[in-house]
């Protein structure tokens, strides 16, 4: 009866016969919950460490990707530049070929004129020799 009177008043005895405000079963559940919470907090800490490491790795990978991206852009720009240089060089060479063709045609005309003049002079010489 005394135990019931104390229980009604909110006081309880534990296994060591110490007076407690909480019932022993609730006290045990509270202790278990406290331990589970501690384990949960420890696991959350481990998870945060793992996530922190993962974020560091991802950041490092992102930096490497950005670096390679810049290299690729530089290479592409260099390739475009080389392509434009080749086009300009090709145009210069085509202009030079056109100029040389024009010069060749002029030399052919000049050669034909010189051959005609040579033929005329040879004919003049022959006539001059025959007339003597």
UniProtKB/TrEMBL annotation:
Keyword annotations: Cell projection, Coiled coil
The UniProt record lists the keyword Coiled coil: yes
InterPro entries: FT20
Main location: other
Subcellular localization(s) per the UniProt record: Cell projection, Cilium
Protein name per UniProt: Intraflagellar transport protein 20 homolog
Coiled coil: 79-117
GO CC annotation, single: ciliary base
GO term, biological process aspect, one: protein localization to cilium
UniProt cross-references to Pfam families, sorted A to Z: IFT20
Highest taxon of the lineage: Eukaryota
């Amino acid at each position: 009866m005394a135990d019931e009177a104390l229980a009604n008043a909110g006081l309880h005895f534990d296994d060591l016969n110490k007076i407690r405000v909480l019932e022993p079963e609730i006290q045990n559940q509270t202790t278990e919950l406290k331990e589970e919470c501690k384990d949960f907090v420890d696991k959350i800490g481990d998870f945060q460490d793992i996530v922190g490491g993962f974020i560091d790795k991802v950041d490092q990978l992102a930096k490497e990707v950005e670096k390679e991206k810049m290299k690729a852009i530089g290479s592409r720009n260099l390739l475009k530049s080389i392509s434009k240089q080749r086009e300009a060089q090709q145009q210069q060479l085509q202009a030079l070929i056109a100029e040389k063709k024009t010069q060749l045609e002029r030399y052919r005309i000049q050669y034909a004129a010189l051959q005609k003049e040579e033929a005329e002079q040879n004919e003049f010489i022959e006539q001059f020799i025959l007339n003597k």
